Amino acid sequence: MRIQSPRQSALKDSGSALSFGARLVVAAPYLWLVGFFLVPFLIVLKISLSETAIAVPPYTPVLDLAAGFRGLRDFISGLSFANYVTLAGDNLYIFSYLKSLKVAAVSTAILLACGVPLAYAMARAPRRLQPALVILVVLPFWTSFLIRIYAWVNILQHDGLLNQALMWLGLADRPATWLATDAAVYIGLVYSYLPFMVLPLYASFEKLDESLLEAAADLGCPRWKAFFVVTLPLALPGIGAGALLCFVPIVGEFVVPDLLGGSDAAMIGQTLWTEFFANKDWPVAAAVAVVLLALLLVPIAFYQRLQARDIEGRS
Amino acid sequence: VRRMSLVNVVALALGLAFLYAPIAVLVVYSFNASRLVTVWGGWSLRWYAVLAEDRAMIDAALASLGVAAASAALATVLGTMAALALTRFRFRSRAPFAAMIYAPLVMPEVITGLSLLLLFVAINLDRGFLTVIIAHTTLTMCFVTVVVQARLAHFDRSLEEAAMDLGCPPGRTFFAITLPLIMPAVTAGFLLAFSLSLDDLVIASFTTGPGATTLPIRIYSEVRLGVKPEINAVCTIFIAVVAVAVVAASLIEKGRSRKRGAISV
Predict the structure, then answer these.
(1) Number of Cβ pairs closer than 8 Å across A and B?
(2) How far is CA B4 from the centre of its chain?
(3) What DSSP element (H or E) covers A59?
(4) Who's near B248: CB < 8 A, 6+ residues apart?
(5) Residues whose CB falls within 8 Å of the CB of residue A4, separated by 6 or more in sequence, listed in order
(6) Which of A42, A133, B44, B108 could form an S-S bond across to B33 if both were Cys, CB 3.0 to 4.6 Å?
(7) Which long-range contacts (CB under 8 A, 24 or more apart) does A122-127 make?
(8) Binning pLDDT at 50, 70 and 90, where does residue B113 land?
(9) Per-residue pLDDT tens over the stretch B217-250
């Protein structure tokens, strides 16, 4: 049993009892996130309701605080939903969203199919080898994301190694097109997100109680079946965390489809990038971001619940 | 006794091969003498010599290191504070605070980048290295928080309690007792923040300004024009530095825990 000192319980009890130092510890990161995470979203929301203008900044209305109440009224009456009407009316955007969701769902499924056997094998490896295996899986993640995608450009290009290998093995008689296809995008996504899938899965498999599997075996359950009826259900939090950790960022992914994908159907991250950098249409780019965020709100909330429960469960 | 089945061994071997083969190809081809990136022309260091002359690439690399060091330092301080706040204190509005910590972990980079840029425009802050540092700090502090929080969550508090019972004020207790004990996690958080910053293309592209080019922005503009042997050389140097750093960090950590183990035994 642990005896709590009165000082500590006072620290934990109520917000008003916090010392100056404790207040600072809470306030500094809190204010930083409000200023650089929350407020920027409100600005995005506001600009998505503005109209494009050839000006600096390139949108109207601009809130004129000096004009007081009249300024605020002019500002509100200047807001419009025109950008959202544009998004809803243009197939380009709708296809872009649908394509992103499809690509994210399919690649998350592939990642699960590759990640589960890999993570399970890591968890079953001899204990003394496991830290080294974790480092081996994480090491590519520490090298640059961009570099890893670029490595695949090397391999997938027309006269690249993949085609050379396929022809040498006699599996193809002439070079196939890999670069600028959806297949290349899936390869790139699976490659770059695999560590994000494997680590949460490994964490769940690793703390699995071995005796449950022995019990299943004693009751005559074959090993492969025990994996599906015992191991996988117990690893569900890890599976959920891994899937969301991959799915959500992939929906908005830019680098992989830009370097490996074709130009025919852009994912939404590319569309946003083009609206912003090429078309300089900030309000439409902001509206694209708001809708994307709205689509991802539910998976993000799920991820937060898993994350919070994981931390609380450990303490 | 645990035993790996054949399926396990095959899965492990295939998985690691998939993770490392592309990197190996990249490294090998950076030593290719041929200008044609797909034709092997024998071993050579010529692309490293070309690289040593490339002033723009070297400047971008130095700039990236500076941005990464500054933002990782800031993110480590803020992220550790946030981890303490979440594990040690109960305060109102804790839930929205936790939400703001976990959301950036999965938030698509295009959204984070665009929203920060619009903020900088709204408050009239000139874009350059400072804005990239702020943006990277915001992203990476959340990763630091998660790493440090995991350490704090299963942390034996009896030493802290003993210090406080002996009259040590909370602030001093933190620096004398808590911080040394969570130092491995804080260091890991710093390294993670550093490498995320060094790696980031999307957020830096949105928040940077004229003249402030980081290494990924530079590499990206080259890569868009096709595969070039010099880029293979840049990437190889990058990978070598990271590999040495990670292996060194894990060896130091291993040595330290062995020493600790010897004392407690």
Answers:
(1) 285
(2) 33
(3) strand A59-60
(4) none
(5) B161
(6) B44
(7) A122/A198, A122/A202, A122/A205, A122/A206, A122/B12, A123/A202, A123/A205, A123/A206, A123/A208, A124/A205, A124/B2, A124/B3, A124/B4, A124/B5, A124/B8, A125/B4, A125/B8, A125/B12, A126/B2, A126/B4, A127/B2
(8) very high
(9) 998 988 887 777 888 888 888 888 878 877 777 7
Per the structure block, which two tokens stand in for A258?
A: 């830009």
Q: Does A145 touch chain B (CB under 8 A)?
A: yes
- Residue entry with tokens 């969570």: B182
Distance between CA atoms of residues A90 and A70, nearest Å = 35
Is A105 buried (19+), middle (13-18) or exposed (0-12) by CB count in 10 A?
A: middle
pLDDT digits (tens, 9 = 90+) for B147-181: 898 888 877 888 888 888 998 888 888 888 889 88
Residues of A in contact with B165 (CB under 8 A): 5, 7
Residue for token pair 């090491």 = A139
Q: How much is the pLDDT for B147?
A: 87
Report yes or no: A186 at the B interface, CB cutoff 8 Å. no
Closest CA to B113 of A189, A38, A40: A40
A255 CB neighbours in chain B (<8 A) are 201-202, 220
Q: Is the pTM of this model over 0.90?
A: no
Tokens found for residue B30: 């950076």
- Rounded Cα distance between B191 and B89, Å, is 26
**In this complex, do B8 and A120 lie within 8 Å of one another by their Cβ atoms?**
yes
Region of residue B228 (left: phi > 0; alpha: psi -120 to 50; beta: else): beta
For chain B, strand residue ranges (E) read none
> Which residue in B8, B16, B137 is closest to A124 by CB distance?
B8
What does the pLDDT read at residue B265?
A: 32
Which residue in A has a C-alpha nearest to residue B153's C-alpha? A315
How far is A275 from A272, CA to CA, in rounded Å? 5
* Chain B closest-CA separation from residue A218 CA (Å): 15
State the pLDDT at residue A22: 83
Q: What is the enclosing helix (H) or strand (E) of A56?
A: none
Of the candidates A195, A211, A62, the residue with the CA atom closest to the CA atom of residue B123: A62
